[in-house]
Amino acid sequence: MGQFELLLTPAGQKVLAEAVELVRGGADPVQAATALRRGYGADLVSAALTQAGLRRRAVVKFGADAEVMYFTPQGLEQATRVEVAEHRARRLVDRWGAGSVADACCGIGGDLVALARAGCAVDAVDVDPVTAAVARANVAALGLRASVRVADAGELDPGAYDVWFADPARRTSNRRTFDPNAYTPAWPVLMEMVGRSRAACLKVAPGIPYEFIPDGTEAEWVSFRGEVKEASLWLGDKSQEVRRKATLLPIRETLEASGVEPEVGTIGRYLYDPDGAAVRAHLVAEVAQIITGRLIDPQIAYITSDSPARSPWVSGYEVEEVMPFSLKRLRAALRDRHVGSVTIKKRGSAVDVERLRRDLRLHGDNTRVVLLTRLGNRPIAILATELPTP
Ligand SMILES: C[S@@+](CC[C@H](N)C(=O)[O-])C[C@H]1O[C@@H](n2cnc3c(N)ncnc32)[C@H](O)[C@@H]1O
């Protein structure tokens, strides 16, 4: 029996409950291990303490469910957070009904759990035996029904399900990979399986290059509290063009490409940074329309306006000064204002932000935002203060 399976035995459950209490109480890891070792074997104690620590870390992603779920360090890192998984499951059911769904790379079950809760009959596989065992334990711990097996995604027949879903592994040596050919399973394999499916949904990294997105796909970029998390590709409809959407979670606001032509004009009193999901989905003109703003440059995703706008689609700044970019000039402007701390943002600028921060040698009690960007090929710096978030 593997270390993880030991935890599912009656003795394992007991030691896990004690480990959770110790971790919750902030016990020192060595003391906790010593205390538990008085009643249980070393392997079990180590598995229980690891699991208790993972449950604690998992609360940010899984909320109260984390208290009863199981994780592996990598499985937790790669899992879809609950709000995003629920959003996808809801979309899937709205679109194709709550039928049979293959989860071809289920991990510890973030998406699997959401799909099962949404009423889908899920058949899940993961190539890694421990990860699959953890996913199976999660289905049971949450009182759900789904089949979870150890298998390679390629062993499933995509055409046998109403929907074939895959969230391929996207990290190599601890770095997120944006090249779909480096996913596992690799992109050509995934596309071949999509081709044999009745309908398919793929979770991909938000930085997926557009040329990889097949015709007829609906691509939806999703951000959670202002941070872009992923894109979902919905494949299986017969239309020709790629349809682009962006969604803000947890507020569940979605914007679709409308084809509106962006207005471009001089930088006004306010500057807006659109949510990353809208930027990735190339919906900056649509966001500009919502806040009655204009782009500062056709190639740059900053919006400007002369009156303040409040929208969940943007972070806003009040502009104090716009200057051609030069270290000397920026340093002088910040010195004059006694600025000791700056938030530096950049779009279309090659400046090394950390080096600039050091070179600015700031002193003072005030704070400012510096936005580095360009108009045409002229680099500029915009000195601004942050507007309160809506
Ligand atoms: C990004 S994770 C899935 C996370 C999952 N959606 C969740 O929310 O918990 C990708 C998983 O794919 C699995 N995997 C990689 N290649 C696979 C293959 N060829 N067949 C099945 N699973 C595979 C990995 O073991 C990993 O657990």
Provide structural commentary:
This protein is α/β, with parallel strands linked by helices and 390 residues long. It has 3 domains: 3-68, no CATH class; 78-253, Vaccinia Virus protein VP39 (Rossmann fold), CATH 3.40.50; 270-386. 34% of the residues lie in helices and 27% in strands. The chain has a 9-stranded mixed beta sheet, sandwiched between helices. Helix 3 packs across helix 4. The longest helix has 21 residues, at 42-62. The termini are far apart. S-adenosylmethionine (SAM) binds next to helix 7 and strand 2.
Keywords:
390 residues, alpha/beta, Rossmann fold, 3 domains, 7-stranded mixed sheet, 13 helices, binds S-adenosylmethionine
How would the blueprint of this fold be written?
Layout: H1 3-7, H2 10-24, H3 29-37, H4 42-62, H5 73-78, H6 82-96, E1 100-103, H7 110-117, E2 121-126, H8 129-141, E3 147-150, E4 163-166, E5 171-172, E6 175-176, H9 187-195, E7 200-204, E8 218-224, E9 227-235, E10 243-249, E11 253-256, E12 270-274, H10 276-280, H11 284-290, E13 294-297, E14 300-305, E15 314-324, H12 327-336, E16 339-346, H13 353-360, E17 366-375, E18 378-386
Parallel strand pairs: 1-2, 1-4, 2-3, 4-7, 8-10, 16-17
Antiparallel strand pairs: 5-6, 7-9, 8-9, 10-11, 12-14, 12-15, 13-14, 15-18, 17-18
Bound molecules: S-adenosylmethionine (SAM).
Residues 78-80, 85, 104-111, 125-128, 131, 152-153, 167-169, 184-185 line the site of S-adenosylmethionine.
